[in-house]
Amino acid sequence: MENMIEPNIHPILVHFAYALSITAFVSYALAAFAPVGKWRETLRPAADWMLAFGALAILATIAAGLQAYYTVAHDGPSHAAMTVHRNWAIPSGAVILLLALWRWRNRAKAASTLFIAFLAAAAISLSVTAWWGGKIVYGYGLGVKSMPVVTGEGHDHEHAPGQGHGDNAKTPAADDHDKSDGHHDADATDEAEHDNSDGHHDNDAPAKAEHDNSDGHHDNDSTKSAVSPVVDVDSPEAAVESYGVALRAGDEATLRAMLAPDVIIAEGGGAERSVEEYAGHHMPADMAFTAAVEFTLKKRDVIATDDLATVISESQVHGTFRDQTIHSRMMETMVLKRENGQWRIVHIHWSSAPITGEHEH
User: Fold this and answer.
1) pLDDT tens digits, one per residue of 116-160
2) Are residues 135 and 157 in the same domain?
3) Residue 129: CB partners within 8 Å, gap ≥ 6?
4) Could you give the CA distance from residue 324 to residue 340 in angstroms, rounded to a whole number?
5) Nearest to 139 by CA among 326, 327, 321, 354
6) Shared domain check, 333 and 223
7) How far apart are CA 32 and CA 126, in angstroms?
8) Is 146 part of a structural domain of the chain?
């Protein structure tokens, strides 16, 4: 059953609900003013049936829509858009259901002017609902394999990205994930380049010229074009920085090389459990987000043994992404494992929160 509703059946049902309801309204209106008697005789019963079937479709559509609302991966801004869509959909659907019951009980008579007026208002409300539905798909990329950049926090409700709908801002590696969600922090550290044009990194990080972007989060624009698959790094911090650089540069080959095949990337209460799953979902969005905003590394802690390390980075993220202002603080945790002399990332966790006046420092 889960495969049948993944990504979900809501987009299929919604077309029936909308088309039948709107066509029913148009038919009632035409029948009320039709100069030819035959039109009235055929349009009225047709409109009654379309409204009845439209009401049934609305019940199924709302049920599928609520299932999608709680299961589809999303970030903060897209969560807000989903909520607006839901808040229009439920009242609009409820009114049409009531009107369908009213009409069915009085179908022996011609539809009254009052009934048609209420149905017109419901049709307008349903159209606004449909517009928001299109916005969350085409504007935020929800429900599609490759998400055009999710912004905001997601579903952490929090919603992070952030998924959670949280704030926005992602971290080096996954920065764009949250993108505006603030879910990722930037490891940025390469002094020279990070600062770089971005100017947003405070270079706490080692900043090596070779690392170029040592922060992996923010490398400069210059790094963007000249990023080579950096896999042979000499420390966990360097690996984190290099990952951020590759993310900002949109270098998918390097990102794949630095991630373990079964990497777990978590944020906003959800997780992607392989390189392939991440590449097919949030990676494109993370790359776009990371390239659009600035990260300032505030603090980095490293807990390491010979072949296992955890790098915890605290950053601030500022900028504008998809017409949304990003001003967040972000925490990023990366767990790395050394195999055959190469550090690879086995786990990433991002979380973020908006910066308010008293929290900024």
Assistant:
1) 899 999 989 999 988 888 888 777 776 665 444 444 443 333 333
2) no
3) 85, 88, 89, 92
4) 43
5) 321
6) yes
7) 22
8) no
